[in-house]
Design goal:
The structure holds two protein chains of two kinds. By secondary structure, chain A is of the alpha+beta class. In chain A, 44% of the residues lie in helices and 12% in strands. Chain A folds into two domains: 57 residues, no CATH class; 77 residues, Glutaredoxin. The N and C termini of chain B lie far apart (72 Å). The chains are: A alpha+beta, B alpha/beta. The interface between A and B is medium-sized, with 15 and 18 residues.
């Protein structure tokens, strides 16, 4: 799949934060908001604008779980593997997602529609087993509901 | 501030507020182990090995980051502290491989040493290792991160001291490791291979490839780096007669613990198999080995014969900016008193002759006004015509650190050089238009009333003439000439004029023009206009290229000046030298480098004596240089290798490197420093000073010195600026001239309160275009210079394995839009031709070169850029215009 990216989309973000070292994390969040991930090609540009070393940007990107260096699906699925969810059948829910999409946790579908990851807790144990798709929670899940939920995504 | 009293291991001790417990312990001779601490780096308290107990509270404190406080009862060896320390070290060992027996770090490993000091025999924790592939794709360092203890010294050194920032911590927790951005190999990152990280690494995680399995050094000798004019202090590390490594002399104020890639890894030329070991004499057209007796007899008799036939002025000598002060002094003495001509010059002619000429008239003294260390405290730095990062790496570190401390940096350079990354403002002038933009800056500063009126009135003269001249250099007039937009020029004027301590750094980009002297005078004008000369951290600072080019000038290896810049026609000075040397001296100025070559081609110079120079690569218009040297009846070359010039010689005399002799070098900031003999001369090679002495005796003039220190005593007696410089004073550290007497502490910055010449002289100059400008046949401008990894004509650095590997061939930088026009891709061969010759060279397509300009370095004889350059000279300094000539470029 071609990964031609339009780096000019960085300009407004970087102009806004020119020379602000301390704004690195917000800049990375904005960049990720724009591209869905932090493109490798953007690191040098961000470093120049913020007067940081590229290695420092890479350090922060790899430190935080929230930043990605590879393209992500348009829809992000977070399946909970916390204790409460686990005892209520989270594993079979996760398996259903994996089977439906043909990917494993940590992966992205080829059409860049979905990324799947697991988390330790979503803080809504009373809804266990839970998964989040983008900003929406789906609770008290059973495996056969999964396909339907995913169908509703663009 | 009042000192703080506290208890340390049972004794009452006091210390300055603000110091750490570790500092206090060290001041009191108490050892606390550390792994992540280095006095040159910001303390981070990461390794916890320096834990001590405050028995007043029971707290364990990381002594490297905890300031002392009243009432503390510190015990560095309490059972609790020791137990904690042991646990920390055991945890480190648990994730460290057990490869000590084959690790090249051996007994130099700090982790191993501390573990042993703490009597750790067994590790209580289960082993959790991280194995990473060993990275060794670059020629200099090997990274085995399995042995990394994450102390972060390499990262801090790279970011804080070197300012390269090639690495930082990546990932988190157990996965943390130092990494380059995107984890590319070091050679693809911003790493400059200064080797600081290796020297800081406490374990075997980072090691030097070149000294692998060479064992520990048996001797260390303190001396000075032989490459650029920075003059860094180094230790040569020896195993018997072989130099196996170099480390920084942290006591030296120039560099502290920093060095550049050449200084740290450019040492293997010393023991190189190509070294000349015996004199060579040309017999039947071939150079054959001969004895010293035979060679010196031949040189003496031929020089006497030619002098007898055609007069002393038919002989010329080139001295060497790489040799010591003592050797330069002796060669000019030999030329003047033994041969009896003033035909002596050296390659300062080709780099800063116009600086000496220009600044001597403006200020009365033609050297860096200020010291290297002072740059760090400037608030405005203007760099023009100096690719500082590559040509003076250690000075560039000061600039980077000044910027990190808040200084504003203006760079005015046609090329997008590395230091621009740190610049507040970068102006890209058309090559050869420096007087125009300098006058433009002064126009704006005067027009807007930003100049230092008090200073101009009390410290300078001839200001009105300057004001008149710069009147017409309005920003739009300047823009038309230089291509610098009006608003940017104004911004630069505002920044420079706003500086309390504004310093100007310049080098060959300013001097190597037919208007070189004018360029230098204009820089002096600008600095005086804003009152920046004679103050700390300000000034006008020409960065000198070679290790001892300052010294070679100081020693009078110049056709018009005796040692200490005393004129050859200055009757009083000449008389003093005549009395001391016991000979009548010539008083007519001799020929300069390029003039010598012309005279040789015309047959007026019949013999040349060249010590440690390689004009067959370094001089402009090589076709003519070759014709000139071949025309000579007699050519003697004294060098460490059979250089391109030596290959043409009738007699080649083998001399020794800096590692095999005693002497002094004077660095770019006028600091005279000692070099020391580390190994015995290789083969039959001799130090230059001994060769000159033996030759002089053969020609009937006794030069008897047992040691270079005796030569320095003679220099001190005859050279007022070196009047107080004696070897016994140089043992611990260098002295900066002027140092007129034994009690004088040396001079850190010049022209304080009063210029050397009295009042500073404004010299109004008009803009004159370069001698050769692009036209239809030769539409591009060619500019020349150096790269980080090589030095001068490459005779030393190209014989250094690592340097030759990382930068193996000449490259011509071409702007991408020009490359498109020419149909040339990056890495393809191009043919570059000027009116004087042509070369083929690989193209490097890069934004570094401006449109219409091709840049080449002059280190490679296979693509000798000086086949192309223009020998047109500056009328005063007689410097050739290396920086601008017209060329044609085509795909080869």
């Amino acid at each position: 799949m071609s990964r031609a990216i339009d780096l000019s989309k960085l300009d407004p973000i970087l102009t806004r934060h020119e020379g602000q070292k301390e704004a690195l994390i917000s800049v990375l969040q904005e960049v990720q908001g724009e591209f869905g991930y932090v493109p490798e090609e953007a690191i040098e540009r961000i470093a120049d604008a913020l007067k940081l070393f590229p290695s420092q940007i890479y350090g922060v990107v790899t430190f935080y779980a929230q930043f990605y260096l590879t393209p992500r699906g348009r829809n992000s699925i977070r399946a909970c593997r916390g204790t409460a969810c686990h005892v209520r059948g989270a594993r079979s829910v996760l398996r259903a997602v994996e089977q439906t999409l043909g990917i494993k946790e940590g992966e992205t579908t080829d059409d860049l529609k979905f990324s799947l990851e697991t988390v330790a807790c979503l803080g809504t144990c009373f809804l266990a087993p839970v998964m989040m798709v983008n900003r929406r929670y789906y609770g008290k899940l059973v495996p056969h509901r999964v396909e339907n939920i995913l169908k509703q995504c663009d | 501030m009042e000192e703080i009293t506290l208890s340390l291991n049972g004794s009452k001790v006091t210390g300055r507020p603000g110091i750490t417990i570790l500092d206090l312990a060290q001041q009191n001779g108490i050892h606390i182990p550390t792994l992540c601490h280095d006095p040159h780096l910001t303390p981070v308290g990461a390794c916890r090995v320096c834990l001590v107990e405050n028995e007043a509270t029971g707290a364990l404190l990381a002594s490297c980051v905890t300031p002392i406080a009243p009432g503390m009862v510190i015990n560095t060896e309490s059972p609790k502290a020791l137990e904690a320390r042991r646990t920390v070290v055991e945890l480190l060992l648990a994730s460290h491989p057990d490869s000590c027996i084959i690790c090249d770090k051996g007994n130099r490993c700090q982790l191993r040493k501390i573990a042993s000091d703490l009597e750790i025999g067994q590790v209580r924790f289960s082993k959790t290792r991280h194995y990473y592939p060993i990275e060794d794709t670059n020629p200099f360092l090997e990274r085995d991160l399995s042995k990394c203890i994450l102390c972060g010294k390499c990262i801090r050194g790279c970011q804080e001291l070197q300012g390269a920032g090639a690495i930082d911590y990546a990932y988190r927790g157990f996965d943390s490791k130092p990494a380059t951005s995107l984890e590319v190999p070091l050679e693809q990152s911003s790493c400059e291979f200064c080797g600081l990280c290796v020297s800081l690494c406490p374990t075997g995680a980072l090691s030097e490839k070149m000294r692998k399995y060479k064992g520990r050094e048996t001797k260390r000798v303190r001396t000075i780096c032989p490459f650029c004019g920075c003059g860094c202090g180094i230790y040569l590390e020896l195993r018997d007669q072989e130099v196996i490594g170099v480390s920084a002399d942290a006591e030296n104020p120039v560099n502290r613990i920093s060095l550049c890639v050449k200084g740290r890894y450019g040492y293997d030329f010393i023991n190189h198999e190509d070294r000349l070991k015996k004199p060579l004499i040309r017999k039947n057209g071939k150079l054959e080995e001969a004895s010293w007796e035979e060679a010196l007899d031949l040189v003496a008799s031929k020089l006497e014969q030619i002098r007898g036939e055609s007069g002393a002025d038919s002989i010329a000598c080139l001295s060497s900016a790489k040799s010591t002060n003592e050797e330069n002094y002796l060669l000019q003495k030999f030329t003047r008193a033994v041969i009896r001509t003033n035909n002596i010059d050296h390659c300062a002619r080709l780099c800063h002759s116009v600086t000496v000429a220009g600044l001597a008239t403006s200020f009365g003294s033609g050297a860096m006004t200020n010291s290297i260390a002072e740059i760090e405290d400037a608030d405005v730095i203007l760099i023009t015509g100096s690719n500082t990062t590559e040509t003076h790496p250690i000075i560039a570190l000061r600039v980077r650190r000044a910027v990190m401390k808040g200084a504003k940096l203006i760079v005015i350079d046609p090329r997008k050089i590395d230091i621009i990354k740190y610049a507040t403002l970068w102006l890209r002038q058309n090559p050869g238009t420096d007087v125009a933009w300098l006058n433009g800056l002064m126009h704006i500063i005067i027009e807007e009333g930003l100049w230092d009126k008090d200073y101009v009135e009390t410290r300078t003269e001839k200001f009105e003439a300057l004001r008149e001249t710069v009147k017409k250099y309005t920003p739009d007039f300047v823009e038309a000439i230089s291509g610098i937009p009006e608003d940017r020029l104004r911004e630069a004027a505002h920044i420079y004029a706003s500086g309390e301590r504004a310093t100007i750094l310049f080098a060959m980009g300013i001097t190597q023009h037919t208007t070189g002297t004018d360029n230098v005078k204009s820089i002096a004008n600008l600095a005086m206009l804003c009152g920046n000369v004679g103050i700390e951290s300000g000034g006008v600072n020409p960065l000198r290229g070679q290790n001892n080019v300052q010294g070679a000038c100081d020693m009078g290896a110049l056709p018009n000046l005796l040692p200490g810049y005393q004129g050859v026609s200055d009757e009083k000075a000449v008389k003093r030298f005549e009395e001391a040397w016991g000979k009548k001296l010539p008083t007519n100025p001799g020929l300069t480098v390029v003039e010598m070559m012309r005279a040789a081609e015309e047959g007026k110079i019949r013999a040349m004596y060249i010590m440690g120079e390689n004009p067959m690569i370094s001089d402009p218009d090589l076709k003519h240089v070759e014709a000139a040297l071949k025309k000579l009846d007699f050519l003697v070359v004294q060098d460490i290798f059979l250089t391109e010039t030596a290959q043409l010689a009738h007699v080649v005399l083998p001399s020794v490197t800096f590692a095999e002799k005693e002497g002094t070098f004077t660095n770019t900031e006028r600091m005279v420093q000692r070099i020391r003999e580390a190994i015995e001369p290789i083969g039959e090679a001799k130090p230059d000073w001994q060769i000159i002495c033996q030759l002089a005796s053969r020609m009937g003039y006794e030069m008897n010195y047992e040691h270079p220190s005796q030569i320095m005593e003679e220099i001190a007696k005859l050279t007022p600026i070196y009047g107080g410089i004696y070897y016994d004073r140089l043992e611990k550290e260098g002295l900066q001239w002027p140092c007129p007497n034994r009690e004088h502490p040396g001079t850190r910055y010049l022209h304080k309160d009063r210029f050397t010449r009295g009042l500073g002289l404004f010299q109004a100059v008009e803009y004159i275009p370069p001698a050769e400008t692009p036209d239809e046949d030769y539409p591009y401008i060619l500019s020349t210079g150096r790269v980080l990894y090589h030095y001068h004509t490459g005779s030393m650095t190209r014989r250094c394995q690592g340097l030759a590997e990382i930068y193996p061939e000449a490259l011509a930088e071409i702007n991408p839009s020009d490359a498109r026009d020419l149909g040339v891709e990056d890495g393809e061969m191009v043919r570059i031709a000027s009116r004087r010759g042509e070369v083929e060279v690989k193209a490097k397509v890069t934004e570094r070169a401006p449109k219409g300009v091709v840049f080449m370095n002059f280190h490679f004889n296979e693509a000798a850029v000086n086949m192309l350059t223009n020998p047109a000279l500056d009328p005063v300094g007689k410097i050739p215009e290396y920086k601008v000539c017209a060329v044609r470029v085509e795909k080869a």
